[in-house]
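Blackboard transcription, Thursday session:
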Amino acid sequence: MHSFFKKYLPFSKAQMQEFVNYRAHAIVWVLMEFMFLVLQYFIWKAIYDNSPNEIINGYSFLGMITYVLLVRVVSSLTFVMPSEYISDDIRSGAIAMNLIKPINYRTQLFFKSLGDIVNSIVFFVIPLVVTLIIVAFFVDLEVTLTLPVILAFICSIIFAFTIRFFIGYIFGLIIFLTINSFGIFQLRRAIEGIFSGVIIPLHFFPEWLYQIALFLPFMQGLYVPVRIFMGNYETNTDILNALLFQLMWIGILYVIAIFFWKKAVHRLVVLGG
Amino acid sequence: MKRHLTIYKYFVSQHLKRLIEYRVDFLIGILSFVFIQVSGLLFLYLIFQHINAINGWTYEELILIYAMFQIPRGIDHLLTDNIWLIPRYIIRGEFDKYLLKPLNVLYSIVSERFQIEAFGELIVGVGLLIYIVPQLSITFALYDLIVIPLLIISGAVIYTSIKLLTATLAFWIKNSSSIMVIFYDIADFTKQPLSIYPKAFQFVLRNVIPFAFTSYFPSAYLLGLYDPLTITIQALVVALVSMFVAYRFWKYGLKTYESAGN
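(Written on the board underneath:)
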């Protein structure tokens, strides 16, 4: 166990250092996140100002703003890009070196992604949470936190991170099969945007669309932890079920990942390697 | 001029050949594009299940803005997409090859890529217009044959100018691509009626980063909120000033780059 971490932790550290080298990027990224929040704020404000009801689909205006903020917090806490690493490795030919090293490629990517998460926490989540706390002093954000909810939220975030890692990893392996990675990334981002709850809470969907979302893994990586934090699950059993459902998805994605990995290695075409 | 056009023809046909070669990629590109569009429209559709209008703008009118948003963006995407790669060329030292060509540097970069995927945006934009215009009480006059194309071209020029301006920063800071994205994405603010933002924001979107002229103002004009002469002159002035500033800045950056002897 000790040597396992000794072997893989340097990948996390390297990733963290890389980010520090690109401080300018970090600033731009944080700016972009805040810009997106501002845009969302004005859109929802206009919607609620024009709505005959103060509550839309169970969300008051403040509830919706809380939702939007939490979506940003959770998505940066689980933002990983294994597919980008795979595509970079393919393009540079480094994939061949990585495969002959006595290191599990998937574990290596996982630890690299962990490094990214630490960066997200330092550069984005902490500033945002501080903002959230300051805001909470002035307005009554609609969140009641209890110890079980906090514990469940932490668990759910860890599961969500793992789920998003596997989704990215599987998409990365699909790049082995089709070379144009940009198209695949865009496709994934678009589908994830709809079915994870980023553009709108999934309970706004008509029933049939919501059922589709339930059959896809994307909401497990975002919508579920956000709803746990907002206290939308009524009983502890509901929360437990939600967590077990996430765990089940991790299992399913793990199996799919192994399947694609076998396929991909067979068809590996090293460009410029 | 003639030589430039001939070269462009060769580049385009070369690009089309490449596309046929990677048919699967092309299909994936189309699919992802459809999903992006669907998610934008889905949001509007779901929201309007609960409200009748946003600051006086109905569902159909917001679809009109959405459609107008796509068209100048599509034109810019189609013709000048390679500007996105300028930071990468500079970082990798590939930029110097453009300096050696007996062509205008910007032209030889831009003409290298003809981004056929952009037809997706244009088809969606025009398709939605054809669908939505009959549902709105829009009347066209003869001068609209000039006014509307001018507004669209101005919109495309504004996109290109902002892209060029931010790409030029790469001469000093090397990787300016994330700054390019952030500025380009500001356009998203103009998918909504301008009146939902505070006055200061509206001012910026009209005069500083003038994306309001790419989607909002043309739509408002179609709905009869502005008179044709004023809006055309405003759009043209804004587009020309943007292009002038961006191109001067580009020239200045190029000179700095050359004299640094990279």
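Lecturer's comment: DSSP finds 13 helices and two strands in chain B.
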